Amino acid sequence: MKYIITLIILIILSALILISKNSYAQARSVNIDFKYENYRNNLRQNYLLGIGDKQGYSLAASERRTNTGEIKWADATISLGHYLGVLATEYYLYKQDNRNTEQTIKELYYAISTLYRLDYTAETFYYDENKVAGKPSLNGFFVRDDIDIITKTEYQTLNNGSQINVKSVNSDLLDIDTALGYSTNNEMSKDQVIFLLMGLRLIEKYIPDSTVYMVNNEIKTINYSNGISDIKTAAEKISTLILEYISSNKKIFGWYIKNPTTGKTVKRGYNAYHFQAKAYNSIYKRYNQGESLYGGLSGLFASFENGILKLGFNTIVKMGQGHMVLTMAAISNQFGSKTQKIIMKYSFKDYKSKANYEWEALLYNVLYTSNNEELNFKKEWFDTFLKSAPMNGPYNYKDTTKMSYDWSASRRTTQPESRGNEYNGYKANFNGLDYMLIYNLYKIYYSPKLPK
Fold first, then answer.
1. Cα end-to-end distance, the chain, whole Å
2. How many beta carbons lie within 10 A of that of residue 99, not counting itself?
3. Is residue 37 a part of any domain in this protein?
4. Could you say which residues of the chain have pLDDT below 70?
């Protein structure tokens, strides 16, 4: 009898321990603060060759393909724009909590140096009609990545983390057109510009003047920047260069982005002007004492297109342009006093195409320190949304029973239409920069007091 009682007690204690462990695991799975730190470590361990100024460094891969063992850098400057935005907002939140910001500033310094590197070296990846390689130039023309052959040591670094080992690399730079001898898919394009401007705009908002990276009490200059050390100044300078470059080749109905080495229009997203000219101009004026990118007929046409966009958002979002038009509106206050209302309406609109861009409302309101009553009631929605993200990073393994639907696209911010079964890529783990950016915007907006 005594043995039976003892056995019953042991069974009950084991059950209680198991319940306690499961409850703890469940609590960790929905703790979005813990998850953010996990994602940040995951990014550093599994998606960066390294943090530094070497070729390919401080540039996040987009995915690790689990069924092919390949690591892929796709649209890497969109990821870089997200990374810049994550670091800028992280810095602000860490400061608010009196946390150490040294690592954040280090990563931000190297991330913005990476953008300068991708601009300065861009021409050298191409040839003119005489097969002469271009010369390096800091002029606003950039490439998406500079990832080519990675070393055995770099493979080892990538495979020190918790994710499935990778054994090969893919990037837009490596997508060589054999007839030309270079990659046209690696050229800058309109969407790459927009998301870089987003990250740079968040730096302007959340990084204080005179913020620098120091090593052994020595202020470090931003690489390739011609002597700039202040991170905020560097962000405004490169934004200006990019905007001046995309507006330099004016056509009657557009700004055509050209490759300065080949002299040809870039292969993808070549017309930067459509629906964005007024927004670009608003950002340019912020950094250049009110000067404009355009005037005369160009200005009139930009206003005309702006009006068309305001009336035709539904159609334009359905055309797959939602991530671009909403982001530009959010970072530039494109429609003045009506911008907030438009952002709220179209961010939370439930499109049949699954084009859901709820995060854009956070982006606008934190940038313009706006308090939106409707958005105030969305806190629980965002909380549930962030809790639904997988603990160790977003993924899509082509099995809807084993994924979080909302986090099954490589970027929930720009490709919500590819969630779940609509995803047409490889089975892959994703870098999680989308989660981190939305998390930081959420934390800033729903804090007791919005920053000025």
1. 71
2. 11
3. yes
4. 1-30, 450-452
In this structure, are residues 158 and 166 in contact, taking their beta carbons and an 8 Å threshold? yes
pLDDT in tens, 228-256: 999 999 999 999 999 999 999 988 778 99
Burial of 183 (0-12, 13-18, 19+ CB in 10 A): buried
Q: Please report, rounded to a whole number, the percentage of residues in the chain having pLDDT higher than 90.
A: 75
One DSSP character per residue, 14-43 reads: HHHHHHHHHHHHHHHHH-HHHHHHHHHHHH
CA nearest neighbour of 72 among 427, 397, 436, 434: 427
Asked if residue 166 lies in contact with residue 69, where contact means CB atoms within 8 angstroms, the answer is yes
Residue 176 lies in a domain: yes
Q: Two tokens at 417? A: 């239409």
CB atoms within 10 A of CB 55: 16
In a domain, 8, yes or no: no
Q: Could you list the residue range(s) of the whole structural domain that residue 204 is in?
A: 31-445
CA dist., res. 422 & res. 378, Å (int): 27
CA atoms within 13 A on the CB side of 214: 8
Q: In degrees rounded to 5, what are phi and psi of residue 225? A: -95, 0
d(CA 413, CA 402): 21
Q: Which of 443, 338, 341, 305 is nearest to 382 (CA)?
A: 443
- Supply the pTM of this predicted model: 0.92
In a domain, 293, yes or no: yes
Name the β-bridge partners of 170.
72
Cβ atoms of 331 and 283 closer than 8 Å? yes
Beta bridge partners of 28: none
Total structural domains within the chain: 1
- What is the chain's length? 452
